[in-house]
Amino acid sequence: MKPSFEPVNLADYLAGAAAEVDRTLERLVPSPTDAPQVLHQAIRWSLFAGGKRLRPALTIAVGEAFGAARESLLATAAALEMLHTYSLIHDDLPAMDDDDLRRGRATCHIQFDEATAILAGDALQSLAFQTIAQDPLLDVDTRLRLIARIAGAIGTPDGMVAGQALDLAAEAALVDSVGLAVIHHKKTGALINAAACAGVVIAGAARSEVEQVAEYAAHLGLLFQITDDLLDVTASADDLGKTPGKDERAQKATYVSLFGLERARAMAAAEYEAAGHVLDQMNCETGLLRSIAEHFHTRRT
Ligand code: GRG
Q: 66, 32 in Cβ contact below 8 A?
């Protein structure tokens, strides 16, 4: 029998989780008055710019579904947001995506300068792993498992950095549907997967349950990216807080450019369904995780 809980409103849950993650980040990140001030102001400029906090919310939701206490999830959830923000700061640099708008405001290198943006990303990455390594609410074995899994989602050949390298190399070349899935599995999916798995690791669940969560999150990651590609052609800069239409201008392979709007929508729906089938097999309270998949499917920002 699955444990049953009171139904929770997703919007309230996400808002509550985001507020707690922000309070945790506030505590963990150097003050803007710490020297060198410009570095710490740049970190805060990007970190507190109004991101949706989806990755930390996923850590919290999965962790709570498997019985972890909210308090035990917060530092790791905040660390995942630091890592995500580092990736966005570096992705926006002229050497990469060269963007001047992110989270509804000037990108870090536009507001400050390129060197500061590179250093802000570097510092956020180190701070994230220090946060987990020093979390007094987790036993040392759990900290080590989290660090290994999250670092693996970033620096290994299957991780986010490799995905970014493939994506940059793919701009000029022809990519097929398999190549596209590989890029996004690494670039976007790996960190989303690590965020979900961090929750179930902190809850101390069995290895088989971690694997089920990883499978659910793999569908979620692809769903997130297909939706992102759809929003790039259908949403406004105001809604997105970043420049829409960039993929098309850069002649990037996306789910929309490769398959067209209708098939891309059908592929997103298939990933949503598949995430639901994985949840059907899981022995935990899945209501919130189902709502998160639905949110990833229907989001407009
Ligand atoms: C630079 C090493 C390195 C990696 C960059 C994640 C990434 C890899 C680049 C971002 C490019 C991009 C726009 C990818 C699409 C999916 C994505 C990660 C969107 C941004 O995530 P949201 O929508 O953003 O969760 P907020 O601002 O709400 O946190």
A: no
